[in-house]
Write a structure and sequence with these properties.
Oligomer: single chain
Radius of gyration: 30 Å
Order of helices and strands: HHHHHHHHHHEEH
Number of strands: 2
Distance between the termini: 123 Å
Low-confidence stretches: 1-10, 207-213, 215-241, 258-266
Number of helices: 11
Strand order of the largest sheet: 1-2
Structural class: mainly alpha
Strand content: under 5%
Helix content: 55-70%
CATH architecture of one domain: Orthogonal Bundle
CATH superfamily of one domain: Tetracycline Repressor, domain 2
Largest sheet: 2 strands, antiparallel
Length: 282
């Protein structure tokens, strides 16, 4: 019978094997990326800067990451997994009221991301729209979050609220509030953001956003999904024909105003031309 021999682990150095040293270098690179991407920004961070901060060579960098974008994606994945784990954990708590479950999830989202301003900046700014593949990956993560939130908010369906659209609104509002927190000279408290995010989307509080998400008819569906009709006044979405007609009317009104403004000038020009006609004295 053949005897299996263990795979060579390489020469130990400082008590660490080659795989252990590589894992340790990888962690140092991720720590350097968190610091530099989260303070200087991704666009201004170079690979030599990362290597210097991590205490590794460029060869060691490329052993683990193909590019800065690959490093950013790995860092983003770690942050998004932390957000997802905490937010979904709060949704799975035994609260029967969907409002409380959503509030708990939102609170977990904000508390985790604002625990370190570098994490918040990378999640809200640096990883957004930076690279096509990363953006597609980020949207897939968002979709998974919205689907879980949709399932948790199905208790609102009997109140005429489309749970899918409500969940998408929660995800969008939470991200934009986080962005506001990152950019604000005086950052709002986490509790204030939680309250505003919850109140803005609470249908029982008479929130305007929740009212806009009410489905007009339970059977109004397109493509198997309920479509919400938005009661948003002037910002209401319109069919293409109606929108085109409105734009035409607005354009016509602008032309009429411009013509009216020019009429006095034209009248003066005509008077001057008549005064200069042959046979007339100035």
């Amino acid at each position: 019978m053949a005897i299996k021999t263990p795979l060579p682990q390489g020469r130990t150095y400082a008590g660490l094997s080659a795989p252990e040293r590589r894992a340790e270098r990888r962690e140092r690179l991720l720590d350097a990326a968190l610091e530099l991407f989260g303070t200087v920004g991704f666009a201004k961070t170079t690979i030599p800067m990362l290597c210097s901060a991590a205490g590794v060579t460029a060869r060691h960098f490329y052993d683990d990451f193909d590019s800065r974008e690959a490093l950013l994606r790995t860092l983003y994945d770690g942050i998004s997994e932390g957000v997802f784990e905490r937010s979904m954990g709060a949704l799975r708590l035994g609260e029967e009221d969907p409002r409380e479950r959503i509030r708990n999830s939102t609170a977990a989202y904000f508390r985790y991301l604002t625990s370190d301003p570098r994490i918040a900046r990378i999640y809200a700014i640096e990883a957004v729209g930076m690279h096509p593949e990363l953006e597609q990956h980020r949207r897939a993560k968002r979709e998974a979050f919205v689907r879980k939130m949709t399932k948790a908010s199905q208790g609102f369906e009997d109140r005429g609220i489309d749970s899918r659209l409500l969940s998408a609104a929660i995800a969008g509002a939470s991200h934009d509030l986080l962005l506001e927190w990152v950019l604000a000279p005086r950052r709002p408290s986490v509790e204030k953001m939680i309250d505003h995010d919850h109140d803005a989307l609470d249908p029982d509080a008479g929130s305007s956003i929740a009212i806009r998400l009410r489905a007009s008819r339970p059977g109004d569906r397109i493509g198997g999904r309920r479509r919400a009709r938005y009661a948003v006044g002037e910002a209401d979405r319109q069919p293409p024909e109606a929108a085109q007609e409105q734009r035409s009317e607005e354009h016509g009104e602008k032309e009429r105003r411009a013509q009216a403004a020019l009429e006095p000038v034209d009248a003066r020009d005509a008077a001057r031309r008549r005064s200069r006609a042959p046979g007339r004295r100035p």
